[in-house]
Amino acid sequence: MKILDNKVAIVTGAGSGIGREIAISYAAEGAKVMVSDINEKGGNETVRLISEKGGEANFFKADSSSAESNKALVDETVKRYGALHIACNNAGIGGPMAPTGEYPLDGWDKVIAINLSGVFFRYAIPDTGYAGCR
Ligand SMILES: NC(=O)c1ccc[n+]([C@@H]2O[C@H](COP(=O)([O-])OP(=O)(O)OC[C@H]3O[C@@H](n4cnc5c(N)ncnc54)[C@H](O)[C@@H]3O)[C@@H](O)[C@H]2O)c1
User: Fold this and answer.
1) How confident is the model over 78-93, as a mean pLDDT?
2) Which of 29, 25, 128 is nearest to 71 (CA)?
3) Neighbour count for residue 128 (Cβ, 10 Å)
4) In the structure, how many helices (H) and strands (E) does the chain have?
5) Contact assessment for residue 36 and residue 69, using Cβ atoms and an 8 Å cutoff
6) What is the DSSP secondary structure assignment for residue 52, as one 8-state letter?
7) Which tens digit of pLDDT belongs to each residue from 4-52?
8) Do strands 8-12 and 32-37 pair parallel, antiparallel, or not at all (unpaired)?
9) Which residues form ligand 1's pocket by a CB distance below 6 Å?
């Protein structure tokens, strides 16, 4: 018996780096993993790495900065696996490197949209009353 047997997980930003390793670790512990990223190639590579070790994973392209995209990700995960137990909102960016006085506003908006709003979008939380959650 593994610690995540019969659990379903979403990992955002799982097309590379830390998110990929989290997705691989969850799958190795028995979870079914919905690998999500805006980078389709990287996401599919993560799924391949999980599958070759006998794990269960699928890729769903979603933009963490978009509420609609987050909702679609949760909906698709519940539809495919019948449940959702773990949401790892890992997707994030470093943003531009610049002094505050010169910091580009569009760069600021992007960092806030992905790193903050992407975590706030709460479709995976059951007590929001959102029907897609289990
Ligand atoms: N690596 C570090 O030292 C470090 C330190 C502090 C925090 N973090 C945070 O940890 C997380 C992962 O970092 P990492 O080093 O693995 O970064 P990474 O750049 O390797 O991976 C981030 C992934 O997020 C994806 N992504 C970017 N924008 C997205 C969006 N709008 N929607 C969905 N996916 C998107 C990218 O395609 C990429 O696959 C990030 O949130 C990062 O800010 C990392």
Assistant:
1) 95
2) 128
3) 11
4) 5, 4
5) no
6) T
7) 999 999 999 999 999 999 999 999 999 999 999 999 999 999 999 999 9
8) parallel
9) 12-13, 15-19, 37-39, 42, 63-65, 90-93, 114
Q: Model confidence over 91-126: pLDDT tens digits?
A: 999 999 999 999 999 999 999 999 999 998 888 887
| pLDDT bracket for residue 130 (50, 70, 90) | low
Pocket test for ligand 1, best of 16, 60, 73 (most atoms within 8 A of CB): 16
- Output the residue whose Cα is nearest ligand 1's atom 23: 13
CATH architecture assignment, domain 8-128: 3-Layer(aba) Sandwich (3.40)
Cα-to-centroid distance, 1 and ligand 1 (Å): 31
Ligand 1 atom nearest to 39, measured from its CA: 37
- For the record, the structure tokens of 101 come out as 């006085």
What local confidence, expressed as pLDDT, does residue 124 receive? 86
Which atom of ligand 1 is found nearest the CA of 115? Answer: 41
**CA dist., res. 10 & res. 62, Å (int):** 11
